[in-house]
Amino acid sequence: PGMTVRVAVNLLWLRPGVVGGSEELICGYLGALADHGASGASRVELTLFFTEGFAEAHPDLVEGHRTVQVPSVPGGRPGRVMVESAWLPRQLGGFDVVHHAGGTLPSRSGPPSLVTIHDLQPLDRPEAFGAVKRRWLGRQLPATVAGADALQVTTSFVAEGITDRFPAHANKVTIVPPVVPNLSSDPAGDRGRLAHLGLTGPFVLYPAITYPHKNHGVLIDAVARCRRDHPSLQLVLTGGPGPDDAIVRQRLTNADRHLGRVAREDLEVLLRQAAVVAFPSRYEGFGLPVIEAMRAGTPVVASEAAALPSVVGDAGILVGPDDRDGWVGAIGRILDDPAEAERLVHAGAARAATFDAEPVVERLVDLYGRVAGNGGR
After folding, report:
1. DSSP character for 87?
2. Spatial separation of the C-alpha atoms in residues 3 and 96, rounded to whole Å
3. Rounded to whole angstroms, what are the CA distances from 40 to 2, 48, 220, 274, 281?
4. Is the separation of the CB atoms in 313 and 155 below 8 Å?
5. Which of 48, 156, 303, 341 has the most CB atoms around its CB within 10 Å?
């Protein structure tokens, strides 16, 4: 008690708007920790290390913590890896812990290391990556598990994956769930916003970058079939362009909307006003939008795959990722049965409450203290 743990947070990997859910996840922790510090009870002091673009994308985090902006990093990933292994270690004197929040451990030096591992997709689904990235991550992940002093994951799914593959390092793993904050915008202006976005009827929302594993095609087909009974139903996609963007856009009908990246306020309106939030992804280490939808009071249908069943629990309808009839049935059930929709809304609210900031921050602060105290073990 009384001792402040000084934590360096490595965000050099974080390219705003490009890295997907891991950005939301880490920024959720950092925002909650900033609030925690502001409440005067802080036992940790964070310094964020980031590259250009981060301060513009997350001004509140830059205001809430100490920061170091890295000189510009040339040359994509190889350039970043160079900066992480050559420049960053020289900045780490005086820190008690370095938190590598992007899933990999750069060169081994300096204070005890904590690595957030978002998922094991490079090992579980290597075919999802190009040859160079697959080789790099295929080496990097095992080296990270072996080299880090402590590992933080968000779900039992990822924890069990690490324990099964690397039993010698099982004792390093701590589960800290994400912080999923309450929606901040005021619902009063929702109707105007929806009209502005061109949405008139009931809609199914899927917020996800167009990566192949996000499985957009199944949902496009399912909503098209649901439209036979619900002619005004729309499908709304949000999220930046991924490798499948052209394919996904090609398959959309005039009734569908692909809004791309939307402002946070617009996303909150969409989450709150959707008839259903559907999440057909084949692979997730967590799946934040599922809990955000529950926070917003919207029924959820999600894939019975990877971490999603452990995140959703009994607070949503789970369907096999490629069970097209199942998706049609689940979405139809929510649209046709107000009592079922209401049940899911209540169950979702209770589920979402388990991701409140305070208990999560306590676990993270405690983890930082343990890593600082005994090199993580």
Report:
1. I
2. 11
3. 12, 20, 49, 38, 40
4. no
5. 303
What are the distances in angstroms from CA 93 to CA 150, 204, 319?
19, 50, 50
* Angstrom distance (rounded) from CA 297 to CA 182: 11
Summarised one tens digit per residue, pLDDT across range 125-171 is 998 888 988 898 899 999 999 999 999 999 999 999 999 999 999 99
Residue position matching structure tokens 């989450």: 271
pTM (two decimals):
0.89
Backbone angles phi, psi at 15, to 5 degrees: -100, 110
State the Cα–Cα distance between residues 300 and 315, nearest whole angstrom: 8
Whole-number mean pLDDT of the chain?
92
- Dihedral (Cα; 223, 225, 229, 230), 10-degree rounding: 20
Mapping DSSP to helix (H, G, I), strand (E, B) and coil, where does residue 175 land? Answer: strand
Q: Of 52, 24, 22, 14, whose CA–CA distance to 295 is shortest?
A: 24
Distance CA 154, CA 209 (A): 20
Q: Alpha-carbon distance 68 to 191, whole Å?
A: 41
- Cα four-point dihedral sign 286, 312, 322, 163: positive
Q: What is the pLDDT of residues 43-78, one digit of tens each?
A: 899 999 999 899 999 999 999 999 999 877 777 778
Q: What are phi and psi of 155, to 5 degrees?
A: -140, 160
Angle at 198 between CA 211 and CA 222, to 5 degrees: 45
Q: Which of 140, 151, 142, 154 is nearest to 77 (CA)?
A: 140
d(CA 131, CA 232): 43
CA atoms within 13 A on the CB side of 232: 7
Strand 150-153 versus strand 44-50 pairing type? unpaired
Q: How far is CA 267 from CA 19, 296, 297, 361, in A?
A: 18, 11, 14, 25
Residue from 347, 334, 119, 159 nearest 233 by CA:
334
Q: Are 336 and 230 in contact (CB under 8 A)?
A: no
